[in-house]
Amino acid sequence: MKKIGKYMLVLFLVMGLVLSVTACGQQDESTEGDKEGAKGEPQEEVVLKVGTEPTFPPFEVLDPKTDKIMGFDIDLIEAIAAESGYKVEVQDLGFDALIPALQSGTIDIIASGMTITDERKEQIDFTAPYINAGLALAVAEGNTDIKSVEDLKGKKVSVQIGTTGAIKAEELKEQGIVKEVKIYDTVDVVMAEVARGTVDASINDLPVTLEYINKGHTEIKIVGDPMTSEEYGFAVAKGKEDLLKKLDDGLKKVIESGKYAELLEKYNLPESSQPK
Ligand code: GLN
Asked: So what's the pLDDT on residue 253?
């Protein structure tokens, strides 16, 4: 019994030694971290949550290779956030879920080709405009009877939920022009329905419809002049003045540095896309 007691004592001593050495190792690591802090480097990085609806090329779309969301808006908001030393984390949300998500604090920023409108300005705050766009009418390639909005009498139109295109289509319906408005969650379906002929036309942002056509949807064509002139802004919740100012300042810097022009080129957007 006595012998066993001695062995136990030795065992405890060895264990104690091992534990204290391990603890020292950990201590060393945390001191290292503290030293970094003392040098003035940020101890914790700020990650801004960005919400977007990714069926909107070239502004936001799922990269089939990586399954990650990429596009002009993503690159631009990343560059803007980096000007303040911030990182971004992108979340995929329905277009009609973006404003509620911003208001509930689920996300910090909307970067989703969102048009600055007076109605939305009552709910959220926008940065300075970063893109000029407008709505375009698209029909099936073989369609010869719809050449402009005037030809939409009695026709079925597809749009994305919660968008300015949807508002326009509803207006045309109230005016007794469009017969039926088919509302879909995503723009890929809006386009597919035109190609399939289940609707006669779609109303969607011109640069996006153009990108669908250029990326292989040659069964669709744009007709008539742009129906509206719109500007996109990034949005934050009301009362987030600091964040809004950081984004506006960042946007200015990204334009001045030439990075903005680089991104227009990368995504094949014309120079006229830049708001004056
Ligand atoms: N610019 C349009 C809007 O704000 C469409 C945006 C979108 O579908 N992502 O309503």
From this structure: 98
